[in-house]
Amino acid sequence: MKILILCSKNSGRIAPFITDQVEALQKAGVVCEYFTVEGKGMKGYLWNFIPMMRKIREFQPDIIHAHYGLSGLLANLQRKVPVVTTYHGSDINNPKVLRYSKVSIILSAWNIFVSDKNIQLAGVKGKFSLIPCGVDTDIFRPMERNSLRKKLNFRDSDHIVLFAGAFDNPVKNPELAKEAVAKVPGARLMEMKGYSRVQVAELMNAADVCLMTSHSEGSPQFIKEAMACGCPIVSVDVGDVAEILEGVEGCRIADKNATDVAQKIEQVLIENKRTNGREKLIKMRLDSESVAQKIISIYNEVLA
């Protein structure tokens, strides 16, 4: 089975949750190649139509798997190769982009959504599955915490709060995170920027709390990766976070105000224990291998 992965590379790289998924598909025996889009907005994507057609002729895929709504719309401008499109959240939560995603939903042979909230917002009635992106549980795993804190030069007195993104990303709502952490004595907020996957896993094992204050999300990898590492989580109710964290000990859902977020962080710091998040993650079959098998089943149904 040959799958052409169509996705954006506007940030200078392919999103890690896409490459992780593709690697899991390849391990399962699927032949995958990328066609990456560079160009923003519908006009920017349209400039990629001829190069895309050239890639299709060269690779001759059985299916095109597009990631995000604009990629799905571009992929569906040709009608010879069936298209499976995954919607990751920003393509549904943003009303301006949603109108393009709705066209992609109609044209795609199958649609994958990463959260139930996005399914409701999209108003989709058929041809869809709910499959959050999986986590590489070989990379994101519990590690010896004290040695990692020494390696990262964290002091015993530091309460490390790992923020779910870069401070320059307004969607992640860093202002709320900074205001909340400033209310917690001894707490130090660290942004997630410029780290490799292995380094992120180490930080999650060394940190005291993983914090998410985003305005909107789909099914955030940050939360699932923290679960796989057993790191306590404080998050606002966004995307599918409340559902995924249900029953996970040592985690908190906070209101979107600095006082409540700070109180939840302090509660987690007082408890000072790791979580059973990894157990919940595997039980929900959100490891990369299980998710890859679900996607392969969709490919087979489309081809049938």
Number of strands: 11
Number of domains: 2
Could you give a short account of the major beta sheet?
Answer: 6 strands, parallel
- CATH class wording of the largest domain: Alpha Beta
Global shape? elongated
Secondary-structure element order, N to C: EHEHHEHEHHEHEHEHEHEHEHEHHH
Please tell me the overall pLDDT: 94
Kindly, what is the distance between the CA atoms of the first and last residues, rounded to a whole number of angstroms? 12 Å
What does this structure look like?
It is built from 15 helices and eleven strands. The chain has helices at 16-27, 41-46, 49-59, 69-75, 90-93, 95-107, 116-122, 145-151, 174-181, 197-206, 221-229, 241-245, 258-271, 277-283, 288-303, and strands at 2-8, 31-37, 63-67, 83-87, 110-113, 128-130, 159-163, 187-190, 209-212, 233-236, 252-254. It has two domains: 2-134 and 287-303, Rossmann fold; 145-283, Rossmann fold (3-Layer(aba) Sandwich), CATH 3.40.50.2000. 45% of the residues lie in helices and 17% in strands. By secondary structure, it is of the alpha/beta class. The strands form two sheets. The chain has a six-stranded parallel sheet, with helices on both faces. The longest helix has 16 residues, at 288-303.
Record keyword descriptors for this entry:
single chain, 304 residues, alpha/beta, Rossmann fold, 2 domains, 6-stranded parallel sheet, 15 helices, 11 strands, elongated
Strand and helix map with partners:
Layout: E1 2-8, H1 16-27, E2 31-37, H2 41-46, H3 49-59, E3 63-67, H4 69-75, E4 83-87, H5 90-93, H6 95-107, E5 110-113, H7 116-122, E6 128-130, H8 145-151, E7 159-163, H9 174-181, E8 187-190, H10 197-206, E9 209-212, H11 221-229, E10 233-236, H12 241-245, E11 252-254, H13 258-271, H14 277-283, H15 288-303
Parallel strand pairs: 1-2, 1-3, 3-4, 4-5, 5-6, 7-8, 7-9, 9-10, 10-11
